[in-house]
């Protein structure tokens, strides 16, 4: 959906990489490494292609937050986020094996949750069912009602791909964009 906004032809691929964190790896290093490995995996099979890899992590109280997987886990996540700040690190890596082009960027988006009541959390979860989303919400949908504010240099980063910087990287790689 986000790539369509750039009005460029593209093909989606799902690279198979090991997403296990390395011992002592910071969240920023992890998300950057995963984006780079995803791009490199596809670029190794399609040497002439300009490949975009991306990854995103939610970080709360210094810990990476995973996808809840269940209603009760999502409720617990959102309860702990009430009145707090959750950071979302979104990394993008653009690579082309044939030309040797390689560049990456990482965005840090701060999501300020408003004070949430248990009944609000329950209503939200019943309507959205965001059990496959890190942080238990979908900001591009109803999840936006959970926030007090969002601080980011790129409003699309929270959705999964920082388009402002991705477009800048693609221009530096030689693509013509308006």
Percent of residues in helices comes to: 25-40%
The topology string of helices and strands comes to HEEHEEHEH
Say what oligomer this is. single chain
Tally of DSSP helical segments: 4
Protein described:
- By secondary structure, the chain is of the alpha+beta class.
- It has a single domain (3-172), classed as Maf protein (Alpha-Beta Complex), CATH 3.90.950.
- It has helices at 27-45, 71-81, 118-128, 163-172, and strands at residues 51-60, 63-65, 85-96, 101-113, 147-151.
- A hairpin with a 4-residue loop joins strand 3 (85-96) and strand 4.
- 31% of the residues are buried.
Question: Nutshell version of this structure?
Answer:
The protein has helices at 27-45, 71-81, 118-128, 163-172; strands at residues 51-60, 63-65, 85-96, 101-113, 147-151. By secondary structure, it is α+β, with helices and mostly antiparallel strands. The model has no long low-confidence stretch (mean pLDDT 93).
